Amino acid sequence: MQMASMMAMLSAMMTQAEACAAECMKYADMHEDCRMCAEVCRQCAMACSEMMASMSDSMA
């Protein structure tokens, strides 16, 4: 798989995870499952960001 494709997929996943976290946080005070979902989505977005940074470093 080409690096540009991988970066695009990770970027899209990070965007989706951030959107999911934001939406779930709206209901986190009322529903424990929404709080848990928001946390996992934030972790996913962070992992994507870290992977993208690592891949960028290796390309330099």
TrEMBL record:
Keywords: Signal. InterPro entries: Csp_YhjQ (IPR005560). Residues 1-19 form the signal peptide. It holds the Pfam family Csp. This is Four-helix bundle copper-binding protein. It comes from Agromyces atrinae.
